[in-house]
Amino acid sequence: MDKTERLFAIMDALRRHRRPVTAAALAEEQNVSVRTLYRDVQTLIGLGAPIDGEAGVGYMLKPGFFLPPLMFTPEELEALVLGARWVGAQPDDGLGAAAHNALAKIATASPEDLRDRINDTGLWPVAVWSTKKPMPILGQVRQAMRTERALRIAYSDEAGNPSERTIWPVQLAYYEGKQTIAAWCCLRNAFRNFRTDRIVTLTVTEARYGKRRAVLEREWRDSWPEEFRHLGPDRS
Description:
The chain is α+β, with helices and mostly antiparallel strands and 236 residues long.
């Protein structure tokens, strides 16, 4: 790996971390000495890269910085296209449209050869369900999580027993052919999972969560058995 490639690799590594990462950790990842890493970081700062931190403390990118799409590797582009096409096959029309628009923006901002690869990666997700019936409530659940607004739902369990309850959605899981909401249930005062196809009615209320969603997510994770706590979104 030459110096230019290494500089881009360091930027990619910093972008993956939400908290400061030490020069020693970066140097080990890039397979260079700490002294070389220090020099590379100073080179990047001199070129205008918005890097915060200092030697002995750690480095991180300032919020709002993104590498341009033309820096995506072929594998990164393939992952984006395949992921966007999988999202487009889901019954969440809002996310499907957003995925299509995101790919269009990447294609427009990319050199011609990258646009060609985006349009013809040869990779397609295979949907195992026969029909894609739109489910508008998925957009409402995502809205509730973004704004931390409680949901009022009428729910029918596996046995057909009806109930009404207020929930604070923590996560929304997309499986093949179904979706599940992990939420704090105010009726049971505990975390519960709710199948979206068993929700009869759903309303986004003006009531706020009783806790920040980030706090609820940590508590939700802590409620899992120890062997499953490594699953879920990366918070590094």
